[in-house]
Write a structure and sequence with these properties.
Helix content: under 10%
CATH architecture: 3-layer Sandwich
Radius of gyration: 14 Å
Strand order of the largest sheet: 2-3-4-8
Number of helices: 0
Number of domains: 1
Largest sheet: 4 strands, antiparallel
Structural class: mainly beta
CATH topology: Rieske Iron-sulfur Protein
Number of strands: 10
């Protein structure tokens, strides 16, 4: 299992069960959700109002609801379950009790302009 393009984010045991956790890695706002031994990582930015609150959403039936306006997203895919915009999802690997996330490299930064 190649992990060279994955970044260690946290330990599996540090994530509470069925509760979101906000982690900012470099310029990425991440919302992590642990369901049993599975970890799902979504963008923490709601596509509706662009607020970093997805991690505070209620988890139900393998989806999370944005706490601001209630848009719901599938935890595994980030696809909207209510017919609205999708949210970015990240690939995750668990290795030796650590959560690794594949975060694409940015080609530019807003600070460059």
């Amino acid at each position: 299992m190649s992990t060279s393009d994955y970044t260690k984010i946290c330990s599996l045991k540090s994530l509470p069960e069925k509760q979101g956790v906000r982690i900012v890695h470099e310029e990425e706002e991440l919302a992590l959700f642990r369901i049993g031994e599975n970890v799902h990582v979504l963008s923490n930015i709601c596509p509706h109002n662009h607020v970093a609150k997805i991690y505070e959403g209620e988890i139900s039936d393998n989806s999370v609801a944005c706490p601001i306006h209630g848009w719901t997203f599938d935890l595994a895919t980030g696809k909207s379950t209510c017919g609205m915009s999708n949210i970015k999802s990240y690939k995750v690997k668990i290795l030796d009790g650590e959560v690794l996330v594949k975060i694409p490299k940015r080609l530019w930064s807003i600070d460059e302009f």
